[in-house]
Amino acid sequence: MTPSLSQEFLAFIDDSATFSTKVLAERVLKESRRVTNAEAGSIFIVRGRGAKRQLEAVSLQNDAITTSRKLFVIPVTPASIAGYVATIGQMVFVDDVDHLPEDVPYRFNRDFDQKSGYRTRSVMCFPLKTPEGRVIGVVQLINRLVGPEEGRIAKPFLRSFTEIIGVVSLLVGRAIERIEALEQIRERNKRLTERNRELKAERRRVLQLSEETDRALMLSVELLARAAEVHDGDISSHIQRVNEYSYLMAQLAGRDHAFCDEIRWAAALHDVGKMSVDQAVLHKPGKLDEREWVEMKAHTTHGMRILNGHPRLAMACDIAYCHHEMWAGGGYPRGLAGEAIPIEARIVALADVYDALRSERPYKPAYNHDRAIEIMLHGDERMRPESHFDPTLLALFGKHHQRFADLWTQMAEHAPGPDATARAG
Ligand SMILES: [Fe+2]
Ligand SMILES: [Fe+2]
Questions:
Q1: What is the spatial distance between Cα 384 and Cα 154, in angstroms, rounded to a whole number?
Q2: Would you call 115 a catalytic residue per the annotation?
Q3: For the segment 185-230, what is each residue's pLDDT rounded down to a tens digit?
Q4: By 3-state DSSP, what share of the chain in percent is helix, strand and coil, each rounded to 5?
Q5: Separation of 235 CA from ligand 2 center, angstroms?
Q6: pTM above 0.90, yes or no
Q7: Which of 80, 174, 335, 408 is the most buried (most CB within 10 A)?
């Protein structure tokens, strides 16, 4: 091996991590041609496995003509010179492609010469191998030129090149193997990064869709609650305030974020069942008779039927169904007691009564905060708080009542007008 070639190739091995296969192939081919005086040449890399193995041209060089940029593949079979070398893993010399020995399985493919007008005469073709002896590429050198610059002629390649090539084959093979492995890792990383990006975009899209769905649900809920209010004849901000009191109470009771966020809109639907109650009963001034009370109380069951069956509305459904149940029992529609009443309904019951006390109703004036608190905590002729409310919630309400007063004040500009005739619900 000449010193320059050996040094050059050793340098490849050292630098190979920074090369691509193509760059390394270009340099190996150039150096191999320089050492052997080859006019042209190509390097192929083995791609695929088993019967699908192919030789992919990664570098083409020719001093006589401009080679096409279009690279090509040939199958790994003994039918071509490069294919044969890749198959048997040994070097082949062809001194004259027009006079191939009778006993070789390969033929010289004249397509390239015919298309380009180039004239191939001698060939030297050797494999690039891994240390384990696996062929991972083939170098094909063409036309060893001798003679003066103007009249150079193609002669057979010297057999003494064999010695050089043995080492080159191994060193370059090992370098290419390492580069290929690195390229595969880079390629895989690129694919993973790409996939990651796709997944992130997908997640964003799903999130966006679910936000849109949520917004649509919120809008439907608001419209439904409004429709119930209009039917009820109540144009106040009662339902918004009940939402906010319920949200505050849920937080005071230590419920988690999801619960608090949900009750903040679900509470608005507590009287949605009033849409199915006869307006004559809803707006009747004075006392209701027994039949009318039955009709009125049925708003809880109607509400449950309207909201039933969808998991996203489960809390709203529980509230609509149970907000007139009482802690000690005796409420409606089922007469549940204690913790058998869902906590969200116990919260809304409290919020609903406080707001009704602060509001003007046909059967009562609007009370100020102190009077409302007095009734909530100590009762009056119509209500006994200890049997009405969950005592834990009531204690929290008593402790933080000022915050409920603040909410009323903040939202009072929409307080009931003189035509609000609805009964406390
Ligand atoms: Fe109600
Ligand atoms: Fe209400």
A1: 116
A2: no
A3: 988 999 999 999 999 999 999 999 999 988 888 888 888 888 888 7
A4: 60, 10, 30
A5: 12
A6: no
A7: 80
Which structural domain, as residue segments, surrounds residue 81? 3-187
CA 329 to chain centre: 49
End-to-end Cα, the chain, rounded Å = 101
Residues with CB under 5 A from ligand 1 (ion): 271, 425
For position 290, which CATH number holds?
Answer: 1.10.3210.10
Centre of ligand 1 from the C-alpha of residue 349, in Å: 8
Cα-to-centroid distance, 353 and ligand 1 (Å): 10
| Omega within 30 of 0 (cis) for the link into 333 | yes
183 lies in the same domain as 95:
yes
Q: Is residue 195 part of a domain?
A: no
Q: Please check whether residues 15 and 159 belong to one and the same domain.
A: yes
Catalytic option among 30, 70, 200, 274? 274
Same domain, 46 and 166: yes
Among the bound ligands, the one closest to the CA of 238:
2
pLDDT tops 90 at residue 233: no
Give the ligand at the shortest distance from the Cα of 299.
Answer: 1
What tokens does 11 get? 């340098």
CA of 257 to the centre of ligand 2 (A): 24
CA of 253 to the centre of ligand 1 (A): 22
- H helices of 233-313, in order, are 238-252, 257-266, 279-282, 290-297, 299-307
Question: Does residue 421 belong to any structural domain of this protein?
Answer: no
Residue 413: its pLDDT value, please? 52
The percentage of residues in the chain with a pLDDT greater than 90, rounded to a whole number, is: 57
Q: Flag whether 422 is in a domain.
A: no
